[in-house]
Design a protein that fits this description.
The protein is an alpha+beta fold. The protein has twelve helices and 15 strands. Among the domains are: 55 residues, no CATH class; 117 residues, Dipeptide-binding Protein, domain 1 (Alpha-Beta Complex), CATH 3.90.76; 81 residues, no CATH class. Helix 1 packs across helix 4, helix 2 packs antiparallel against helix 3 and helix 10 packs antiparallel against helix 11. It starts with a helix and ends in a 9-residue tail after the last helix.
């Protein structure tokens, strides 16, 4: 590190609050690696120059950003969304994936959570805690305008959070419960807000980010419904909405980020099968959240379809009873169905399947899945929608599941199916 960079880092540390200095100290002490430091530093509001200087001082590579690659500007994209939202599009009421996607195309947050869990500025350019993490000061971005041309100020943010924290139909209450109450929000000036928390909270900036997807900033004189008049700050304005059918977005000429690369977005709403068929038929260009199974299998290994993969923490849990004998009628049904799929309806032997494979519905019936949780295991389907003994990934003891497959396959007294 050169002398000037070190001098600037030391000057910054002299004026930085204790939580920000603690993050840097942990880096120097080896308590966190580079990726962990960047996540924590962005959460506590360290600027990019401060993060880079600290990394260099610790012997790490500085923060680097890849140059954005954009296609040709212009044109529209057609998006298919499923399932159809059942509630309204008022942002503070969002509890369905598609509702928050429809709102998120037009709305923006104080900060945004990226896929690598770092926070980046959006309508706020900085956020700084006090020494104990009980108060957070946010500086708002200058020059932001709502779609109606009015400037965004601290009053708009305070009005938005009043709705989030006090409205009877707000779905954000659980996120802020015990952390922030409306009397704790104070205006410092037109572009500065101070959040005085009920409890010191180190990860508070995540609560003001896109992670709390109801926290889209709205004007203080907001008058719903959301889908009637453009009232947000994002790159696109929602200009037309037919519930359960479609939504249309046009460029926001007042967007603080410049001119969006797309002219607009056209959304088609429908059930899963209809949206998949629309993609395969060329009626839409992009769909979200496909799950392997059902009609979506046609998308895999399709040369005309590009899949974008993303890491996630979602998982499926299957509760199983372990305190009851297996139902003999279900076992018999599973055995008959397995034999049917091995030989075909006319006794003609078809494509050979795993002799241990049984239909998923038989396992569901046998284990009374919606009754009482007995154990956990992960079950993976093969391409035909069947599962077999080897498809079970053990999570704890699975003797009950093994017993089921042994009975279905006629190996009740065997140690293996």
């Amino acid at each position: 590190m050169d002398r000037e960079t070190r001098r600037r880092l030391e000057a910054w540390r002299a004026g930085a609050p204790d939580p920000q200095n603690a993050v840097v100290d942990d880096l120097f002490a080896g308590e966190c690696d580079r990726a962990g430091f960047i996540r924590r530093a962005s959460m506590f509001g360290l600027s990019v120059p401060a993060i880079s200087a600290a990394l260099v001082a610790a012997g790490e590579a500085p923060v680097a950003f890849a140059k954005e690659t954009r296609g040709k500007a212009g044109g529209r994209i057609r998006v298919g969304l499923t399932p159809i939202p059942k509630g309204t599009l008022e942002p503070w009421t969002y509890q369905e994936t598609v509702a928050l996607q429809l709102g998120g195309m037009a709305g923006e947050f104080l900060n945004r959570n990226r896929p690598n869990l770092t926070l980046v500025p959006e309508l706020a350019v900085s956020w700084t805690p006090n020494a104990t993490g009980s108060q957070w000061t946010y500086k708002l971005r200058q020059g932001v305008k709502f779609a109606n041309g009015k400037p965004m100020t601290a009053d708009d943010v305070i009005a938005t959070y009043k709705t989030l924290l006090t409205s009877a139909d707000s779905q954000a209450g659980s996120a802020f419960s015990g952390v922030l109450s409306f009397p704790g929000i104070h205006k410092v000036d037109d572009l500065t807000i101070k959040f005085m928390l009920d409890t010191p909270t180190g990860n508070f900036p995540y609560l003001t980010s896109s992670t709390t997807y109801q926290a889209i900033i709205l004007p203080r004189d907001y008058a719903g419904p959301f889908e009637k008049t453009p009232q947000t700050t994002g790159a696109f304005n929602l200009v037309a909405y037919t519930p359960g059918v479609s939504a249309k977005y046009e460029r926001n000429p007042s967007w603080w980020g410049g001119t969006p690369p797309l002219q607009g977005i056209d959304c088609t709403l429908g059930d899963g099968t209809a949206i998949i068929n629309a993609l395969l038929g060329g009626q839409v260009d992009l769909i979200q959240g496909i799950v392997y199974g059902g009609g979506s299998r046609a998308l895999f290994n399709n040369p005309n379809v590009q899949l974008f993969k993303a890491r996630g923490a979602t998982h499926r849990e299957i509760p199983m009873r372990v305190d009851t004998d297996l139902n003999d009628s279900v076992i018999a049904a599973a055995q008959r169905t397995r034999a049917f799929h091995q030989t075909g309806p006319n006794g003609v032997r078809g494509r050979q399947r795993d002799a241990r494979a049984v239909p998923r519905r038989c396992v569901t019936q046998a284990l009374n899945l919606n009754d009482r949780i007995g154990m956990r295991c992960e079950i993976r389907l093969d391409r035909s929608g069947f599962l077999g003994f080897n498809s079970i990934e053990r999570v704890g003891t699975c003797e009950f599941v093994e017993h089921f497959f042994r009975k279905v396959n006629g190996h009740e007294n065997s140690s293996t199916p």
